Amino acid sequence: MKKTTGPSLNQLNQRKRNSAFQDKGARNGTGSHNVKNHTVLTYLKSAVRRCVGLFLPGKRKTSSKVVGNDERKNTDKVRELSSSTDLSSNNSNKGSSKSNFSHSYASSSSSSNQIGPGNFSFEEIYRATSKFSLDNKIGEGGFGTVYKGKLSNGPLVAVKRAKKDVQNKHLSEFKNEIYTLSKVEHLNLVRLYGYLEHGEEKIIVVEYVNNGTLREHLDGTRGQGLEIGERLDIAIDVAHAVTYLHMYTDHPIIHRDIKASNILITDNLRAKVADFGFARLAAIDPSKTHISTQVKGTAGYVDPDYMRTHHLTEKSDVYSFGVLLVEMITGRHPVEPQRQLNERVTIRWAMQMWKQGEAVVAMDPRLRRNPASNKAIEKIFRLAYQCLAPMRKSRPSMKNCAEVLWGIRKDFRDKALTHHSSNFPERNARNNKHKTLVSA
Ligand SMILES: Nc1ncnc2c1ncn2[C@@H]1O[C@H](COP(=O)(O)OP(=O)(O)OP(=O)(O)O)[C@@H](O)[C@H]1O
User: Fold this and answer.
1) pLDDT, tens digit, for every residue of 236-278?
2) Distance CA 347, CA 370 (A)
């Protein structure tokens, strides 16, 4: 079990100083802006202006291009890189059929393939997913179908292939978002390797995470069920990841769609947060879970203050995190339409239980009840209550949430140890004897 889940504040500050974004901001005279009042939209608009040279649809006669970590390494040379990642200039895409990728693949040579994160061709992805075979399909979301793939000399990847209706709107904005997001690196964030266009195909390539989503673990369709200590670790990982996004540059990156199905779980039951910054794109999909007005997000998780004001801040993520905490304690989905009326909206029901001093009633029936976990649950509810404050200014920061959760985890471990010792005196005596022998 890993102990260190995120960078220290110093490291964060160092990264902030080093970030290419800030370099560019400095060049543009925007690096020192106080952006507390900026919305992500403002930020994106300025990003579009800054990066406009990178992606000018229609200016280049290309059918395939990559946006990813290559640019990250050479932000001062974005224009050169833009053309160097234009794979059509020296590969097969010349003459390929735009509407039939299997034809284009067949007619392609792969002479220009440069394997590695952020620099891959459509052919490489096509091969990596065994021609987008059903055997490699791992999921379906608002953006499109997700496939597992293995780059020939690179890592396992998840390949997100856009549905047709994600093709047009907001594309230049999206590309700029991708450009920014591909620079973000944190242990608890799913790494974005890059973005690829090939004819009508739009493909996002991200780090593959092996052990399903948090939602699947809570539903019991994956794994052995999560203990309270494991849930606390996951909540802390998420809090670290989102704190990092919020503090990444002077312009915070707001996740916009924190939910249990966007938390991916590793083999050792730690969390990696996926899909940061994508909510706008996914919201193009008219699926029921998305609100297709100006307000983006997933039903049940969206900050009411944001819905009212359309003003997006980091505190909207804090609200969604509050919903997530309740989801993790109760095991329930945010909205459960089949339940009786007073239990349908989980946060409302669970918070009411907690206020009445009956937090244990709202606790996931699969969690073991004992003094240590009951106490931890109560404290998590208290934090969730603060995150769910109707007015954003009353909510804690994400960094503060992480600190509170650390404290809860520490107390839980201490109490669990005492409880364990007093319930198993013989085993405890045996362990102590063993310790004495070892130290002797
Ligand atoms: N990086 C990844 N590694 C492994 N599996 C993934 C990865 N990303 C997505 N998946 C799988 O694909 C499914 C669909 O993911 P996707 O992000 O497209 O949609 P979603 O987050 O479930 O829903 P929505 O798009 O509505 O927010 C996930 O539920 C998960 O099972």
Assistant:
1) 999 999 999 998 766 788 888 899 999 999 999 999 999 876 6
2) 23
**Which of 134, 264, 266, when mutated, tests ligand 1's pocket best, judged by the most ligand atoms within 8 Å of its CB?**
264
Angle between helices 40-50 and 171-181 (to 10 degrees): 90
Q: Most distant CA pair in the chain: distance in Å?
A: 76
Domain chopping of the chain, boundaries: 7-44, 88-207, 214-423
38-96 pLDDT per residue, tens: 333 333 333 333 333 222 222 333 334 444 444 333 332 222 222 222 222 233 333 33
Spacing, Cα 310 to ligand 1 middle (Å): 26
CB 150 within 8 A of CB 128: yes
Distance 431 CA to ligand 1 centre (A): 44
Query: Known catalytic residue: 257?
Result: yes
Note the ipTM here. 0.97
Ligand 1 mutation target, pool 275, 289, 324, most atoms within 8 A of CB = 275
pTM, two decimal places: 0.70
Pocket of ligand 1 (CB under 6 A): 138-143, 146, 158, 160, 190, 206-209, 213, 257, 261-262, 264, 274-275, 282, 289
pLDDT, averaged across the chain: 71
Ligand 1: distance of its center to the CA of 318 in Å?
21
> Token pair 């459960």 is at which residue?
336
pLDDT in tens, 105-152: 323 333 333 223 456 889 989 999 999 999 999 999 878 899 999 988
Nearest to 66, CA basis, from 58, 55, 51: 55
On whether the CB atoms of residues 345 and 352 are closer than 8 A, the answer is no
CA-closest candidate to residue 401, choices 413, 383, 379: 383
Measured by CA distance, the residue closest to atom 28 of ligand 1 is 139
pLDDT digits (tens, 9 = 90+) for 406-421: 999 999 999 887 766 5
Distances (CA, A) of 151 to 71, 122, 129, 159: 20, 11, 9, 11
214-423: which CATH topology? Transferase(Phosphotransferase); domain 1 (1.10.510)
Which fold would CATH assign to domain 88-207? Phosphorylase Kinase; domain 1 (3.30.200)
User: Which of helix, strand or coil describes residue 269?
Assistant: coil
Q: Which of 70, 86, 257, 303 is catalytic?
A: 257
Same fold, 88-207 and 214-423: no
**Separation of alpha carbons 118 and 105, rounded Å:** 20
